[in-house]
Design a protein that fits this description.
Number of strands of chain A: 12
Distance between the termini of chain B: 30 Å
Low-confidence stretches of chain A: 420-431
Low-confidence stretches of chain B: none
Structural class of chain A: alpha+beta
Order of helices and strands of chain B: EHEHEHEHEHHHHH
Number of strands of chain B: 5
Shape of chain B: elongated
CATH superfamily of the largest domain in chain A: Histidine kinase-like ATPase, C-terminal domain
Bound molecules: adenosine-5'-triphosphate, magnesium ion
Strand order of the largest sheet of chain B: 2-1-3-4-5
Oligomer: heterodimer
Strand content of chain B: 5-15%
CATH class of the largest domain in chain A: Alpha Beta
Number of domains of chain B: 2
Order of helices and strands of chain A: HEEHHEEEHHEHHEEHEEHEE
Mean pLDDT of chain B: 88
Number of domains of chain A: 3
Structural class of chain B: alpha/beta
Strand content of chain A: 15-25%
Number of helices of chain B: 9
Largest interface: A-B, 28 and 20 residues
Shape of chain A: rod-shaped
Chain lengths: 431, 203
């Protein structure tokens, strides 16, 4: 039986039970909340730590880059300078960062190197690491030589978004190189002077020919006039010969003058393909007269050489003229000249002049470069000898070959490397 | 004057033509050749004359041509070398090897013509002597062995009698042989006969 006090007791127990349950639930909830709060706090702390570390890292990198003695810069694909360190500012003579940042890097690249620079940038944005040299004109107009090691920077998806370049001033090094080259040129000049000594001997012989012919013709005329048994008209032919021989002597002297005048080569960076094209242009008329077809096979990368362009022009011109003359002489059916520029590795280029003429007799092939060696009635025999001394004064070499179907003359010149080395060193931000 | 020919070998056609023009003023015949080889191929050794040769030529040089000619067993044409400035050494070598003369460029025209005339005269004499020797050889070849024996002893100065004794012949027979020898050799006297015999021996 249930009494009133029982009922109260029961009610109390029920209430207490409910309260306890509620309390426990509350406690659990509280605990959960605490936990969550703690976790939240932990996460925040953690995030803060990451941020701090990132900031620290960036700061450290900046310090390194800012204090880096060499120029470090970021460039966009179009050449816009995105960032550059103080050393870089100094290198290009920029007073404030905004003098160069946001501007095109080409503003400080010398005119003749813009193409080379552009080509190298293209390669970096295609993912290559490259090293290249170029001449720079700084914002203050100073000329200097630079060497850049450039690598692509990629975003999270792997696309190249910038070029990271480290650039060094190599002017002094270049200058030393240039001095070396000058010295070489000087040596070549001295060598040429002694060649000229040899030439003087050859020249004496060579000039003696027309001079003694002139004397003989003239004496023959005088003798006939003295003896009185000559018709004036009979003297015309020998006197014409006298004039011709005088011209021949003059021609010999002209060759010598050319040779001496051009003894100081003026070296510049020369696009060899351009030189070939200009020779073809000014021998066009002769080629047409000789019914000769000239074809070109030029190296696609437009190799540059250190050379006196006029002199190199003269060499190619001599070879082309000889080829035309050789083919005209034998009335070759096919009269073709092919001129090729063929890179020989990175630092040399070969220029070939190939004809479809009679070729060169094996007995004289070693003599064709000798002064005054000629097989032509009107020839002087100076063309190849001058060509050889020009090529050698450029530090190159020239040779003649005879095939079944014609002759080939080739000479080499030192090329300016487009890319100094294919060094694959990578520059990483995370050292 | 003579029917001598001046042969000119010079690779330089203008020089060759000018030499012809000059040499023809003294009424000599001129033949020009553009190379040493062309001369070797085309030269007729029976023609009297002399050779004017440039020392320096491409291909076979003047000195080489001289050697090649010397090696031939035919008559030797006298050579006048024309040398350029500084080629004197070559000229000396040429003369040592038997060249007749040399002139140095630039030369005096009269000087060259005089030397050419001298060379031609020399060659004429040489040809004359050669002809004479050839004639002697022919005459002596016409003698019989017996006549040769008689002649040899006559030249030694033996009398007919002594010769007859030495050869076991009669003096009369020796007399007949001796007359025959005189006739064959066209000798008019004993001294003629001795001279001819000595010339033949020398030849
Ligand atoms: N392409 C060729 N094919 C055949 N022979 C050649 C060729 N080029 C040169 N030679 C030979 O080499 C010789 C020398 O050539 P070089 O150019 O020195 O003198 P040249 O042409 O005779 O006279 P010039 O002084 O007027 O040029 C020529 O006479 C010819 O015999
Ligand atoms: Mg030529």
């Amino acid at each position: 039986m249930i009494t009133g006090s029982d009922a109260m007791w029961l009610g109390f127990v029920a209430l207490w039970g409910a309260l306890t349950v509620a309390l426990i639930a509350l406690a659990v909830m509280l605990l959960r909340l605490r936990e969550a709060e703690q976790r939240l706090r932990d996460k925040e702390a953690e995030q803060q730590g990451v941020l701090d570390r990132l900031q620290e890292n960036e700061y450290r990198l900046r310090t390194i880059i800012e204090s880096e003695p060499e120029c470090v810069k970021l460039q966009a694909a179009d050449g816009t300078v995105l960032e550059i360190n103080p050393a870089g500012l100094r290198l290009v003579d920029a007073g404030r960062p905004e003098d160069i940042i946001g501007k095109k890097i080409y503003d400080v690249v010398a005119q003749e190197y813009k193409d080379i620079y552009r080509e190298n940038m293209r390669r970096v944005f295609e993912g290559e690491a490259v090293v290249y040299e170029f001449k720079s004109i700084t914002l203050k107009g100073r000329t200097c030589w630079m060497e850049t090691h450039a690598v692509p920077l990629r975003d999270a998806r792997g696309a190249v978004y910038a070029l990271l370049g480290i650039t060094r001033d190599i002017t002094e090094h270049k200058w030393a190189e240039e001095q070396g080259r000058r010295h070489q040129t000087e040596l070549a000049r001295v060598a040429r002077l002694s060649t000229m000594g040899e030439m003087a001997t050859g020249l004496a012989h060579e000039l003696n020919q027309p001079l003694s012919a002139i004397a003989n013709f003239a004496r023959g005329c005088i003798r006939r006039l003295r003896s009185g048994d000559v018709a004036p008209a009979d003297l015309i032919e020998p006197l014409e010969e006298v004039c011709e021989q005088a011209e021949r002597a003059g021609e010999i002297m002209r060759h010598v003058r050319d040779f001496v005048r051009k003894s100081e080569p003026r070296m510049t960076a020369v696009d060899i393909n351009q030189v070939v094209r200009s020779v073809v242009k000014f021998t066009e008329l002769e080629a047409r007269q000789h019914e000769t077809v000239v074809t070109l096979h030029l190296a696609p990368q437009q190799p540059r050489v250190w050379a006196d362009s006029i002199m190199v022009e003269q060499v190619i011109c001599n070879l082309v003229r000889n080829a035309m003359e050789a083919m005209a002489e034998t009335r070759s059916l096919r009269r073709e000249i092919m001129i090729r520029t063929v890179p020989q590795g990175e630092d040399a280029i070969e220029i070939e002049v190939i004809d479809t003429g009679p070729g060169i007799d094996g007995a004289v092939i070693d003599q064709v470069f000798d002064q005054f060696f000629t097989t032509k009635p009107e020839g002087v025999g100076m063309g190849l000898s001058i060509s050889r001394s020009i090529v050698e004064s450029h530090g190159g070499s020239i040779r003649a070959e005879s095939r079944a179907g014609g002759a080939t003359f080739r000479f080499t010149l030192q090329a300016i490397p487009l890319r100094l080395s294919s060094d694959e060193r990578r520059y990483s931000l995370h050292s | 004057m003579s029917d001598a020919t001046v042969f000119i070998v010079d690779d330089d056609q203008a020089v060759a033509r000018s030499l012809r023009w000059l040499i023809e003023t003294v009424r000599l015949k001129v033949e020009t050749f553009a190379s040493a080889q062309a001369f070797l191929d085309g030269y007729d050794a029976s023609k009297p004359g002399c050779l004017v040769l440039d020392v320096r030529m491409p291909g076979m040089s003047g000195l080489e041509l001289q050697e090649r000619l010397a090696a031939r067993r035919t008559h030797h044409v006298p050579i006048i070398f024309i040398t350029g400035h500084g080629d004197v050494q070559m000229a000396v070598r040429a003369v040592q090897a038997g060249a007749f003369d040399f002139v140095e460029k630039p030369f005096n025209d009269q000087d060259l013509l005089d030397r050419i005339q001298r060379a031609i005269a020399f060659e004429g004499e040489q040809r004359g002597r050669e002809a004479h020797r050839a004639q002697l050889r022919a005459l002596f070849a016409s003698l019989t062995p017996r006549e040769r024996e008689v002649l040899d002893l006559v030249v030694e100065g033996l009398s007919n009698k002594a010769i007859a004794n030495a050869l076991g012949l009669s003096a009369k027979t020796v007399e007949v042989h001796r007359a025959k020898v005189m006739e064959k050799l066209h000798a008019r006297s004993l001294s003629d006969l001795v001279k001819l015999a000595m010339q033949h021996q020398a030849a």
